[in-house]
UniProtKB/TrEMBL annotation:
InterPro entries reported for this sequence: CARKD, Nnr, Ribokinase-like, YjeF_N_dom, YjeF_N_dom_sf
Keywords: ATP-binding, Isomerase, Lyase, Metal-binding, Multifunctional enzyme, NAD, NADP, Nucleotide-binding, Potassium
Basic and acidic residues bias: start-end ranges: 213-228
Binding site for (6S)-NADPHX: 58-62, 120-126, 131, 149, 246, 309, 358, 425
Gene that encodes it: nnrE
Stretches assigned to the YjeF N-terminal domain: 10-206
Keyword Isomerase: yes
Organism lineage string: Bacteria, Bacillati, Actinomycetota, Actinomycetes, Streptosporangiales
The species this protein was found in: Actinomadura alba
Entry function: Catalyzes the dehydration of the S-form of NAD(P)HX at the expense of ADP, which is converted to AMP. Together with NAD(P)HX epimerase, which catalyzes the epimerization of the S- and R-forms, the enzyme allows the repair of both epimers of NAD(P)HX, a damaged form of NAD(P)H that is a result of enzymatic or heat-dependent hydration.
Protein name: Bifunctional NAD(P)H-hydrate repair enzyme
YjeF C-terminal domain residues: 211-489
Subunit annotation: Homotetramer.
Cofactor note: Binds 1 potassium ion per subunit.
Amino acid sequence: MRHAHEVGKVREAEQALMAALPEGELMRRAARGLAAVCAPIPPRAYGSRVVLLVGSGDNGGDTLFAGAWLARRGAGVEAILAGSKTHEQGLRALRAAGGRVTADEAVIDAADLVIDGLVGIGGHGGLREPYARLAERTAASAAVVVACDVPSGVDASTGEVEGVAITADVTVTFGTYKPGLFVDPGARYAGVVELIDIGLGPRLPEPDVVAPHSEDIRPPRPSPESDKYRRGVLGLIAGSEQFTGAAVLAAGGAVRGGAGMVRFASVRPAVDLVRQRWPETVTTVLEAGDVADVGSLVGRVQAWVVGPGIGTDERAEALVAAALGSDLPVLVDADGLTVLARRRDLLRRTAPTVLTPHAGELARLIGADREAIEARRLEHVREAAAELSAIVLLKGSTTLVAQTGRPVHVNPTGTPWLATAGTGDVLSGLTGAFLASGMPPLDAATAGAYLHGLAARFAVAPHDRPGEGQAPISAYDVITALPRAFRTLSGDTTWAGPG
Ligand SMILES: NC(=O)C1=CN([C@@H]2O[C@H](COP(=O)(O)OP(=O)(O)OC[C@H]3O[C@@H](n4cnc5c(N)ncnc54)[C@H](O)[C@@H]3O)[C@@H](O)[C@H]2O)[C@@H](O)CC1
Ligand SMILES: Nc1ncnc2c1ncn2[C@@H]1O[C@H](COP(=O)(O)OP(=O)(O)O)[C@@H](O)[C@H]1O
Ligand SMILES: [K+]
């Protein structure tokens, strides 16, 4: 996992470390790391035109020291001192190395490299002038932009962006990742994030946010003792007279997600379609009076997924109530979430509940404003998990998974091409398969989001080559690419082949 810490925790750890080190050592480490990332950027240090945007705090100090290092290696370094004061030793170091100070902001236009040292973890609120103007000018320049610690204008703890911010190609961050580098909108401004070890690790407490690596994703694998029941039977309640496609897509996610068996229940037209496309499923046609008994009609399962395409009428409500009335893990998605918005009482249960809303669905569930959720995703997903007593997977440009008392998991895979009807249904079926296998719900949701996003990337650009073009995808393409996504995960060494 990549660990991210909020500003308060970073400052505490830094203070403890600073007390144990010679003065200025921490900044030296940060500046050296920043310069080392900048040096190889074409046309490389010697003869390149480097512009430093220097604010009044230590972020500006790091940037001045890094600029001095680059100047000693032959770069032409000019610093724009934008703050009300300037880090003195940093400025002395830059001048001693042959760097210059300039008031001419036009140097940004012709720069090869701009280093953003306006604000770091000390930033609050939208960028004030002249910082905002400098950020806009930088965005219009062809220079490579490297942000020091965080892109100025991005809230390091939350990823909020108020107004203008620096758009970086690379962000060089120190000691630990910051949540704002992982979570949108901030993540969009950060570019590639490089972590520099400044020795903070041992002093850091539990992270606030984590982003899994491929090796952290461990979907269940069958063992020689496995049979279809032990692998996990998923009960899936999806589709209605009006919406049948959602059922086919959710069933596909579950089948390709490795469920031992999918027991599918719905109205006749949805059952007919699911059987045609996924003959592997065991189906139950629900007649008008059957909904309350769905559990016993379907047979034994280890987890439920309820919601995709079920509609929002009384019948749908009874289906959601029946699933949540069980003592099994239940994932509620799509229409099921709309039903829950008026029946929050159904969430009072002891078995785990996983909710998979997009921002609009979450807005209805917690009575918040959709735009506010998009702007402050981290805050809202945490609040929702606490308020709804559930594991909440908030979909969107960065998918977040929150469980109270645990760091928020942020999904590193995915692509904006996923924003197309039906892909969410695939995710709920896939995650449901993991729940049915007995995976802890936070891990199941994290693995679901990861593999779903990876499959989407493979569908968009199947050859996985740099520079390869991308094409629009359908939700079905995501299902088709799931096996390939699974195969990228670290292998199971116990497999000896047949015979
Ligand atoms: N504390 C430490 O031990 C270390 C800190 N380091 C660097 O120090 C940085 C933090 O330094 P500081 O605490 O001095 O804070 P910053 O340099 O991030 O920013 C503080 C200054 O920016 C101004 N400011 C804040 N928000 C603004 C806005 N929206 N518009 C315009 N001006 C704004 C403040 O008034 C203040 O003068 C880190 O991000 C990192 O780059 C590194 O050197 C590593 C060690
Ligand atoms: N801008 C975006 N960037 C990346 N992924 C996105 C973006 N917008 C939506 N997604 C993803 O697309 C999927 C859409 O799901 P959802 O909104 O439930 O659609 P549907 O209900 O039509 O299936 C989710 O996995 C979500 O995380
Ligand atoms: K910065």
